[in-house]
């Protein structure tokens, strides 16, 4: 129902079912609210999740992104303030890739890897190539300030660093397999599609929600996750 955009029917189904106290099914509806840009319903769904799991950061982060997508920057900022007031901390994103040399893990902006300089040089090359594929502003309705301050940080997200390392060491015929502990963000999801096309590589990313198979500029999830 969420995938089809029938959000009212999805909400009614949850409320009338034995799963109405299960946070995971409400989080699924919240993700649908973001995809279909239903901010009003998203607010109500997020409030319900916060009642069930007040210390979980997922609902706060999703609601923050809903506000950001809608251009409601002041409301998005208030969500961050609420998280601080309630002591809710976002779980750090961690991505890892397994090569012959072992498992290599990264956090956003990570520069602890011994090949850090090479990785960032490769990442810069990757981003330069995908910039040539599209001139679309992937930051959506974000303000210029947020774009400048946050876009560079998103460019350093952990999954991008892991993919860069994979491109450096794996042969052209080998798919790049990366794992991540959190849901992949929209910016990185779009980047992975473009990288798969610009580099002519298959990328398999397993995030907290599903497997994403990127090939020739598209993803197996059809942009719904």
UniProtKB/TrEMBL annotation:
Signal peptide: none annotated. It comes from the Eukaryota. GO terms for biological process: RNA modification. Pfam families: DYW_deaminase (PF14432), E_motif (PF20431), Eplus_motif (PF20430). One of its GO terms (molecular function) is RNA binding. Residues 144-225 form the DYW domain. This is DYW domain-containing protein.
């Amino acid at each position: 129902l969420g995938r089809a955009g029938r959000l009212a029917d999805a909400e009614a189904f949850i409320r009338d079912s034995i799963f109405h106290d299960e946070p995971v099914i409400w989080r699924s509806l919240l993700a649908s609210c973001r995809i279909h840009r239903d901010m009003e319903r998203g607010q109500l769904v997020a409030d319900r999740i916060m009642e069930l799991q007040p210390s979980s950061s997922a609902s706060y982060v999703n609601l923050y992104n809903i506000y950001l997508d809608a251009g409601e920057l002041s409301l998005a900022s208030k969500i961050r303030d609420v998280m601080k007031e309630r002591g809710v901390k976002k779980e750090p994103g961690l991505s890892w890739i397994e090569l012959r040399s072992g498992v290599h893990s990264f956090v956003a902006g990570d520069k602890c890897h011994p090949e850090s300089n090479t990785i960032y040089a490769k990442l810069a090359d990757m981003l330069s190539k995908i910039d040539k594929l599209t001139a679309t502003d992937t930051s959506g309705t974000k303000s210029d300030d947020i774009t400048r301050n946050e876009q560079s940080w998103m460019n350093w997200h952990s999954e991008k660093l892991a993919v860069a390392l994979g491109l450096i060491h794996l042969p052209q015929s080998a798919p790049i397999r990366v794992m991540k502990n959190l849901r992949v963000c929209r910016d990185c999801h779009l980047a992975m599609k473009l990288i798969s096309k610009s580099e002519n590589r298959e990328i398999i990313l397993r995030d907290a929600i599903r497997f994403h198979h990127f090939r020739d500029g598209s993803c197996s999830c059809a942009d719904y996750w």
